[in-house]
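Fold it.
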Amino acid sequence: MVTAKDAYGNTVSGYTGTIHFSSTDHGAVLPTDYPFVPGDNGTHTFDGGVTLNTGGVQTVTATDTGTPGITGIIVNVLPITDFANTAKTSSTATFSWTAASGATGIIIQQSLDGGTTWTTATTTSVIAESDTTATVTGLSPATSYKFRLVVTGGANVGNSNEVTVTTDAIYIQVKAKLG
């Protein structure tokens, strides 16, 4: 949604300029230029909205094409920051997080070298955009991993905070019979 406001923060109900969108996310999908009409009363909602595809904090700006000095910041992207480990075994790790807003894809990545290189972790099922938990499988016992959530699209696009998990060791009891 874009609302034309004056210098005092009041909605300019008679605004009829044309706006153009730009973003710091060069992979963003943005609405086309839009000429406000009197019936908009200074506010217009864009069906389909904005899709951001690059991690980190991103902005979308609407600029009046007739008066380029008139701009407005529309959105700031906030990656997930509450990605947390909730359980572990010798071969699995379970995680939780707050639902991602408008996501088009979610995966968990893992690193064995402290976060220098990352690979997609194997999970018990494909993570749906609305999911808030997942279990990673196929881990080695007594091994330290770093994990992160990677969100594509929506308001939480990008990499989450990183979580270190050391899987449980496997203990084998050996009985010997003497004699």
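The mean pLDDT is 88.
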